[in-house]
C-alpha cells in the first residue's frame, strides 16, 4: 500500500520525490528523530523541575502565603505551596500543562517559519548557482507543481521533527483544558502561516538572485526579527497598539494563542501571559471583529489566503521567465488597492484626533514602502525597455494604442503605472482623511499624505532613469540610490538637529513629509508641490530622451547628419 501511495505521488508531483530522495536517508531520519525526542524530553524534565518539592513558593501552587511568612523575593508572583491530606502537593496541573503547550507552540512557530524559510531560500539559491534550476524550468511541469514540491520536500526533515512532537503538544493542550477544535484551529493557522512565509521565501529567492549566498541569511534574519518582536508583543498580553502595526501582528500565528488560553478558564492573574485584551481591543474600520473566535480565526486565515495568492502569482510569473517583471501592471493596481483598503481599516481604532493623525502618519509610511516594492516589481530590464522603445511607433498598427501599452503593457517603462498606483492610494485614503474626526489635524494630514505620494513618484522616476543606465548593476544602483535618498536626509537632520517644527520645508522633500505639515504654512506647501512636480517633469523629460536614444536603430545611428 505504501509503495502504491509513493508511486501515485511520484506521478502527481515528481518534484516532491526528487527532494525527498536526497533528504530522507536513514541517517537524516535518525538525527531528526533524536533531535525531536530528546528535545521533548528536555522540555518535560525542565517543567517537571519547576514543580514544588518542598515548602516554599511556586507558580503552580494554589494557596496564598500566610501573613507571618518570611520575606520571599517572588512573593507577589508565586503562590504558597501546601499539601493535601494525603501529603501530595496541591498544584494547578492545567497551568503546568498550559505552560508546556505554550512553549512548544512558540518553539514550533520559530522552527517552522525561520528554519523553513532559510532552507527554501538556500535550496533555490543553490540550484540557481549550480544551474540546475534552468533544467527544472525546461520540464513540462507547471510552476505551481514544482514549487509545491519544493515546499513539501525541502523542509521534510523539519516537518518530521514537528510531527514527532505533535502527540506531546496535542496531549499537553488537551490536559490544559483547551478544546480540541481550538487546537486544530491553531494548527490550521500555523499551516496557513507556513504557506505564506514559504511562498514569500520563494518569491524573494526568485527576485534577488544577485544577492547570491547572502539570500538565505537575509531572508531568515528578517523573518526571525519579525517573529521575535511580534511574539514578545503577543506574549505581553497588553492591549493592541491601536495603530496599523496591528495588521502585521496578524501574520504571526501566535496571535491566536490567547483564544486557546482563554478557553482554559484559568484566572489571568495565574497565567500572566497571552491576555485576550489585545485581541478584543483590535478594531478594523471601528468594528471589533476579533471578539468572536470563529470570526477572528476566519479573518486571520483570509488574510493569509489573500497574501499567499498574490505571492503565488509572482512565483508563476518569474519562474519560467527570469527576465519578466515580478507583477504585471494590472496586478499591481489590484495589489495597491487591496493594501491601501486593508491597512486603512486599522487606522480607525480610536476616535482621538491626535492618535488618528499618528495612524495616518504610519499608513503613509506603509503605502510609501509598499509603493517602492511595487516600483521594483514593475520595472522591466533595460533590454526589454530598449526593444519596446525601438518598436513603440508600431503599437498603433498592431491594434494596441501607445497609451494602453504604457498603462497595461509589460515591456513599457513603469513611470506611468506608478502614477496610477499612487492615484489609487490617494483615491482610497484621501477621502478617509476628510471623513475622519481629525479636527485641527485634517488639513495637515491631507497635505502630508499628498506630499508623501509625490515623493514616491519622484523616487519612481529616478529609479526608472537609473534602470536605463548602461551599467551591468542597474538594479543595485537604483536600489542603493533610492535608499540613500531616503536615509541620508534623516541622518543630516539628526546631526544638524533640524526639527520639523523649525524647518518644515526641508522635511517636505523627505520620505516622511507628513511629520512637518503641522508646522507649515500654505505658501511653503505650495512651493513644495511645485518643486516636486518640477523635478518630476525634468526627470520625465530625461527618461523620454533616454528612451528615444535607446529606440534609435543601429542603421539610423550610422547615417550621418
TrEMBL record:
Name recorded for this polypeptide: Uncharacterized protein
Transmembrane annotation, as ranges: 29-47, 95-121, 146-166, 173-198, 218-238, 289-312, 333-351, 357-378, 416-438, 444-468, 475-499, 519-541
Upper taxonomic lineage: Bacteria, Bacillati, Cyanobacteriota, Cyanophyceae, Oscillatoriophycideae
Keywords associated with the record: Membrane, Transmembrane, Transmembrane helix
Amino acid at each position: 500500500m505504501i509503495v502504491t501511495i509513493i508511486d501515485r505521488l511520484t506521478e502527481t508531483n515528481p518534484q516532491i520525490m526528487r527532494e525527498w530522495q536526497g533528504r530522507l536517508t536513514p541517517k537524516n531520519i535518525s538525527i531528526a528523530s533524536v533531535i525531536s525526542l530528546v528535545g521533548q524530553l528536555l522540555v518535560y524534565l525542565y517543567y517537571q523541575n519547576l514543580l514544588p518539592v518542598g515548602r516554599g513558593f511556586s507558580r503552580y501552587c494554589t494557596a496564598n502565603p500566610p501573613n507571618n511568612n518570611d520575606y520571599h523575593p517572588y512573593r507577589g508572583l508565586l503562590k504558597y505551596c501546601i499539601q493535601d491530606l494525603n501529603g501530595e502537593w496541591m498544584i494547578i496541573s492545567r497551568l503546568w500543562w498550559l505552560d508546556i503547550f505554550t512553549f512548544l507552540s512558540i518553539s514550533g512557530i520559530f522552527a517552522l517559519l525561520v528554519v523553513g524559510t532559510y532552507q527554501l531560500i538556500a535550496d533555490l539559491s543553490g540550484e540557481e548557482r549550480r544551474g540546475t534550476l534552468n533544467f527544472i524550468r525546461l520540464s513540462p511541469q507547471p510552476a505551481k507543481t514544482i514549487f509545491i514540491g519544493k515546499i513539501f520536500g525541502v523542509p521534510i526533515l523539519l516537518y518530521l521533527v514537528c510531527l514527532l512532537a505533535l502527540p506531546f503538544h496535542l496531549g499537553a493542550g488537551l490536559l490544559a483544558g483547551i478544546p480540541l477544535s481550538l487546537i486544530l484551529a491553531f494548527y490550521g493557522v500555523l499551516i496557513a502561516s507556513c504557506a505564506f512565509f514559504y511562498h514569500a521565501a520563494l518569491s524573494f529567492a526568485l527576485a534577488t538572485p544577485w544577492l547570491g549566498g547572502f539570500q538565505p541569511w537575509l531572508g531568515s534574519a528578517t523573518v526571525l526579527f519579525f517573529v521575535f518582536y511580534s511574539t514578545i508583543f503577543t506574549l505581553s498580553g497588553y492591549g493592541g497598539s491601536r495603530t496599523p502595526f496591528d495588521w502585521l501582528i496578524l501574520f504571526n500565528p501566535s496571535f491566536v494563542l490567547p483564544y486557546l488560553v482563554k478557553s482554559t478558564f484559568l484566572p489571568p492573574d495565574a497565567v500572566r501571559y497571552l491576555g485576550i485584551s489585545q485581541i478584543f481591543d483590535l478594531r478594523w474600520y471601528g468594528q471589533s471583529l476579533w471578539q468572536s473566535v470563529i470570526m477572528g480565526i476566519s479573518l486571520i486565515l483570509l488574510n493569509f489566503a489573500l497574501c499567499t495568492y498574490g505571492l503565488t502569482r509572482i512565483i508563476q510569473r518569474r519562474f519560467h521567465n527570469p527576465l519578466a517583471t515580478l507583477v504585471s501592471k494590472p496586478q499591481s493596481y489590484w495589489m495597491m488597492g487591496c493594501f491601501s483598503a486593508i491597512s486603512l481599516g486599522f487606522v480607525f481604532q480610536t476616535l482621538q484626533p491626535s492618535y488618528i493623525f499618528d495612524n495616518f502618519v504610519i499608513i503613509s509610511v506603509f503605502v510609501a514602502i509598499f509603493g517602492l516594492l511595487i516600483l521594483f516589481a514593475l520595472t522591466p530590464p533595460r533590454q526589454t525597455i530598449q526593444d519596446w522603445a525601438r518598436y513603440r511607433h508600431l503599437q498603433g498598427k498592431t491594434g494596441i494604442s501607445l497609451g494602453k501599452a504604457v498603462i497595461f503593457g509589460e515591456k513599457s517603462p513603469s513611470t506611468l503605472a506608478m502614477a496610477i498606483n499612487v492615484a489609487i492610494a490617494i483615491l482610497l485614503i484621501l477621502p478617509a482623511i476628510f471623513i475622519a474626526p481629525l479636527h485641527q489635524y485634517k488639513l495637515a494630514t491631507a497635505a502630508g499624505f499628498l506630499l508623501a505620494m509625490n515623493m514616491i513618484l519622484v523616487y519612481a522616476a529616478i529609479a526608472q532613469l537609473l534602470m536605463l543606465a548602461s551599467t551591468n548593476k542597474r538594479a543595485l544602483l537604483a536600489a542603493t540610490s533610492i535608499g540613500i535618498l531616503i536615509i541620508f536626509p534623516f541622518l543630516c537632520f539628526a546631526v544638524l538637529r533640524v526639527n520639523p517644527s523649525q524647518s518644515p520645508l526641508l522635511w517636505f522633500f523627505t520620505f516622511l513629509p507628513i511629520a512637518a505639515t503641522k508646522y507649515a504654512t500654505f505658501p511653503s506647501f505650495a512651493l513644495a508641490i511645485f518643486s516636486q512636480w518640477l523635478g518630476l517633469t525634468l526627470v520625465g523629460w530625461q527618461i523620454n530622451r533616454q528612451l528615444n536614444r535607446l529606440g534609435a536603430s543601429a542603421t539610423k545611428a550610422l547615417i550621418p547628419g
